[in-house]
Amino acid sequence: MTRAVIVGSGPNGLAAAATLSAAGLDVHVVEAADELGGGARNSEPLLAGLIQDHCAAVHPMAAGSPYFADLDLPESPWVLPEIDCAHPLDDGDVVLLRRSIVETAAGLGADGWRWQTLFGPSSRSFAALSEDILRPLVGIPRHPLLLARFGAAAALPPVWTARAFAEERTRALFLGVAAHAFQRLDQPLVGGIGAGIITAGHAVGWPVVAGGTGTLTAAVISRLRERGVTFETGRRIRSRRDLPPHDVVMLDVHPHAVAEILGGSLPRRTAEAFRRFRPGPAAFKVEFAVEGGVPWRAEETGRAGTVHLAGSAREIAAVERDVAEGRMPERPFVLVGQQHVADPQRSVGNVHPLYAYAHVPAGYTGDATDAVVSQIERFAPGFRDRIRAMRVITATEWSQRNPNFVGGDILTGAKTPLQFMLGPRISAQPYDTGVPGFYLCSAATPPGPGIHGLCGVNAARRALRGLVPAKRTREAQPA
After folding, report:
1. Does 244 map to a domain?
2. In 3-state terms, what secondary structure has residue 142?
3. Which superkingdom is the protein from (predicted)?
4. For residue 145, what pLDDT is reported?
């Protein structure tokens, strides 16, 4: 039986294991950490029973992923908040993003029809659109007209697209979602991540996993064990000599680690491309236990699963530019996760978990705790008085906990136009390493970060295509 080794047990490593095991391969997963799952885990760091997601938290792209449908898990893991996302403003107003595009548009006044024109066709046809946007963008699209329509929001620099809206509050809502790219918002293609999240959200919502993201990871691992996949933790692969016996290897690791593992086996240009692969800005996370919940000035904000704290569109563009250029802003973009709104079991009585992180420069070594708290207090006066406990995860600690998060970059690579489209090197085959039998399947490859698993699925399918001619060659050799 053909044996596959998966290096790394993050969402894409598990997805590659699922695809290869379904094809009949003997699959073994090797994980450097003591716990499987990479960034798709949860814990109770502040209070017993108070559940906090580790990294991946809100999953619009995953809920519509064909990978999870193919896994046929015993029950749906997804739960939805009443409001997907809220963007409070300094004047006390709040702009709301709902699963229903009609309800979202109704709250956008004169911009409602513009929002529906921009995102309606793509969201209504998201299943078809995903066949193009959840695979490498280089190649012949399966739905060219639909992809072109989506490109109207995805290809232009987000600050240009925002000009299509007449009202400042709509521009702020749009740029707040676009900021998920952790990049300057005046560059082309950077809007692809935000446009994808908005489109997927109007199709399936912005769900969280019931019981924490790690609950879904545990279900996936259980299903893989049923298929015969084996797992090994606490084993770091530093070179080819460290690998178990294999016919094919899937690398759910950072391109820098691929260059280390494969060393002189890599073609020179590929090795250079992997070594110069750029990390993006970092996340500085603060987890809170909040008694009575957050006292948001705009009451509807408390019913949203995700909250963007950054003020106006102009402010968002400015702070994201500063962070991308290595400057720490006084008031950074802060993303707040209120997963307990959709999943009350995460709370303990009247104490609720709050997940928050600020966008900070790559490799940031300072302390952004007060900046995060101040941004929440800005839109929720009295928040500080409700904090019962908190834990900080700095950019440095992210990289120590997960080698894929170089310098605290939780997206596994800067989503600049070229890196977002092509991955770590210019090639029509972004999963190939140039070494026969070795494939890159991490979030450094298209379609990028998230627990949707499509980087792993796409890479594994590429590996399976490579195994067929290799098998034929062996069979053709004389005995």
Report:
1. yes
2. coil
3. Bacteria
4. 82
Structure-token pair, residue 90: 């300094």
Coil, helix or strand at residue 222: helix
Cβ atoms of 83 and 69 closer than 8 Å: no
For residue 447, whether the previous peptide bond is cis, meaning omega lies within 30 degrees of 0, is yes
Residues 6 or more apart whose CB falls under 8 angstroms from that of 476 comprise none
Q: What is the pLDDT of residues 453-463, one digit of tens each?
A: 999 999 999 99
| Within-domain flag for 260 | yes
Give me the DSSP letters along 233-295. -S----SGGGSPS-SEEEE-S-HHHHHHHHGGGS-HHHHHHHHTPPP--EEEEEEEEEET---
> 145's torsion region: left (phi>0), alpha (psi -120 to 50) or beta?
alpha
Question: Torsion over CA of 67, 70, 74 and 75, rounded to 10 degrees?
Answer: 50
What are the phi and psi torsion angles at 86 (to 5°)?
-120, 140
Q: What is the residue type of 5?
A: V
444 falls within a domain: yes
Residue 228: alpha-carbon gap to chain centroid:
28
Domain count, the chain: 1
Contact 296, 380 (CB under 8 A): yes
Distance CA 438, CA 436 (A): 6
CATH of the domain at 232: 3.50.50.60
C-alpha to C-alpha distance for 101 and 124, rounded to whole angstroms: 10
- Tell me what pLDDT residue 475 has: 38
User: What is the average pLDDT value for the chain, to the nearest integer?
Assistant: 94
Geometric angle at alpha carbon 204, from 84 and 218, rounded to 5°: 90
Q: Which two tokens stand for residue 49?
A: 């029973």
- Type of residue found at 446: P
**For residues 136-155, average pLDDT:** 79
Give the DSSP H or E segment for 390: strand 387-393
DSSP state, residue 8: -
